[in-house]
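Reopening this ticket.

The earlier resolution said the output was attached, but the attachment link was broken on my side. Pasting everything inline this time so it's all in one place.
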Amino acid sequence: MAVKIATALSTKPDALAAGLEAAQSAAERLDHEAPELAFVFASGSHLAAPEAVIDGIQEVLRPRALVGCGAGGVLGSRRELESGTGLALWAASFAGEGEVIPFHGRLETEAGEARIAGLPDFEGARAAVLLADPYTFPTDAVLEAIATGTPGVPVIGGLASASGATGSASLILGEQVRDEGAVGVCFRGVEVLPCVSQGAAPVGPEVTITAAEGNVIHELAGRPALETVERLIAQLPPRERTLVAGGLLIGIVVEGGKPEYEQGDFLVRGVMGADPESGRLTVGALVHPGQVIRLHARDARSADEDLRRALRLRVAALTDSGPAGALVFSCNGRGASMFGPCDHDADAVEQELGAPAAGFFAAGEIGPVGGRSFLHGFTATVAVFPA
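Inline output:
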């Protein structure tokens, strides 16, 4: 398969003009062939008229499937527009091979019972991209259902991080703007390599949960959980203690049994509460006795190294073809507020892959850890497409 991917970034304030400019740029890179799939991410004043963005893209590019969402910031062409008005476009031609199935998932109530409608059959799928409204779509529950029903199918994507003029979601599917649920595509016969890079560094040693219920850790290594965490923090070197002081996170091993655990093996979650009397810790994930955890802290240096290492592993796996391009879903807590200089993730992804990339700053990122897809925070989640 000869996959061709083109990206474009427009800063024109007019929605139609931005759509036309981005589409013309992508069309030239695709030799004016209509792509099977295009993603569009719009921010700022474009959210007042997303239909005009769609009109501009459809007039020039004519993709067979168009999917997108509103964003607080967009990225592409090694640039990041974290605020203001911008438009990022990603378009791919799969040479007529494989199948791209667009969908609109939504929560419906029937006979007093809630159910998810509109999702495709993920059986036999190579991967899926999901763009969800954080207020009207139960992303966590849907990811769990997909993992249970079709284990091994990676789901990559993010939560829309900006609303339209009416305050509702701006989810794009084809020529329509949806105001609730989630939109996305399911890939059959199209290879996608998922990449999840945590925005946190592991610190201290690994410890095992010895008593837990739900999302509450009662004991670590046979001692009250809070007491154990305080002891681990006290033993950290000064730099790591400083990082932890900025916000303690817990990394939970999802898939056990390995002789050693690396940075990408942990599902990183925040500490939601601590009870000094009982010594219990409440974390943002379900846990159980026997799981291994490790303390984590947000760290720009580690986040940069982890992203680059993860991307290099994907490139090394593509010895025959190399990457054609990538979709990027970066946490809206990254960017300049984490790294200082602008354009970090956009630049790092294109630099390491040597291929075009585009995406948006999400209010939560979706990607697999330990063979199951989760909703994350502070990550850069990347879908790499082989050439």
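Reporter confirms the inline version is readable. Residues 204 and 232 are 6 Å apart (CA to CA). The chain has a mean pLDDT of 95.
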